[in-house]
Design a protein that fits this description.
three-stranded mixed β-sheet; 291 residues; mainly alpha; P1 Nuclease; 59% helix; single chain
Length: 291
């Protein structure tokens, strides 16, 4: 069994950034469970209608499962694959200060397009609109299908942006090319933050969400409001601010174990809490009941 786990982790370490699953499915579902609890009644109704009854936890992993879709593989591999992350050069800690020459778009550009779709506003010209038109053709032909697509992908990206390696460096593919060992098994920095830290707690999705929700309930209201303030660009910058600490810690010792988990689990859990609250904030602003 140990040998099998090592082989599986080695395979994961070889995945490019465009194939990595931010937070893994478990992290996304935890964020979805948290967000669901902070939706207004109007948002709950609108979301359930567009998602055909699915909850946020279920919808949160859809954009990753569609990576292997066969209906239009060129779209999923060429366009949508870059909508899960933002690459910024080293030394640039703010999205607005970085060049954005990706010809298929990034996570923030995708969020802007999806927000416009859900607000019945014109979709901004650019690579994301081009990709959506490649997939759907005329975006006005089936507005409900386009809105359902936009909502599912938006829920996913709002989780992605809380994961520090999804606003990382292109040169190492968001930490995918930063090798290390996790309790003696070979993997990479991206995978540790995608899934291994979350899984280390050995809790179910709902149990983990319940634990974080209890912490949220004990957090001063002023701190919660501060978490919810701002926009996705600011939230990306918040996650980006963790990178120096992550790389410095890795450079000290790439053999990660329980000491690393104890040191960084609080930061990881804070990002999950932020993901839940911020996802609910965006949806409440869109559908009603938001501040």
């Amino acid at each position: 069994m140990r040998r099998l786990i090592a082989v599986l982790l080695l395979c994961l370490s070889a995945l490019p950034a465009s194939s990595a699953l931010a937070w893994g499915q478990r992290g996304h579902r935890i964020i979805g469970h948290l967000a669901e609890r902070h939706l207004s009644a109007a948002s709950q109704a609108a979301v359930r209608t567009l998602l055909d009854g699915d909850d946020l936890a279920t919808a949160s992993t859809w954009a990753d499962t569609m990576r292997n879709a066969t209906d239009n593989p060129e779209f999923w591999n060429r366009y949508a694959s870059t909508w899960h992350y933002v690459n910024l050069p080293k030394g640039v800690n703010h999205y607005a200060a970085a060049p954005h020459d990706n010809d298929t778009g990034d996570a923030l550009q995708a969020l802007a397009a999806f927000s416009a779709i859900l607000r019945d506003a014109p979709v901004p010209a650019g690579p994301v609109r081009k990709g959506l038109e490649f997939y759907f053709g005329d975006l006005r032909r089936d507005p409900r299908a386009v809105k359902a697509f936009a909502l599912r992908f938006m829920i996913h990206i709002l989780g992605d942006l809380q994961q520090p390696l999804h606003c990382g460096y292109a040169e190492d593919r968001g930490g995918n090319r930063v090798p290390l060992t996790w309790f003696g098994h070979p993997t990479n920095l991206h995978t540790v933050w995608d899934s291994l830290l979350v899984e280390n707690a050995q809790l179910s999705d709902t149990a983990y969400a319940n634990r974080l929700e209890r912490r949220i309930a004990q957090t001063p209201l002023s701190d919660l409001r501060q978490m919810e303030q701002g926009d996705p660009q600011q939230w990306l910058n918040d996650a980006r601010a963790l990178l120096d600490r992550l790389y410095a810690r890795h450079s000290q010792n790439p053999a990660l174990n329980g000491a690393y988990a104890a040191e960084f689990t609080p930061a990881m859990e804070l990002q999950l809490e932020r993901g839940g609250l911020r996802t609910a904030t965006v949806l409440n602003r869109l559908f009603g009941g938001g501040r």
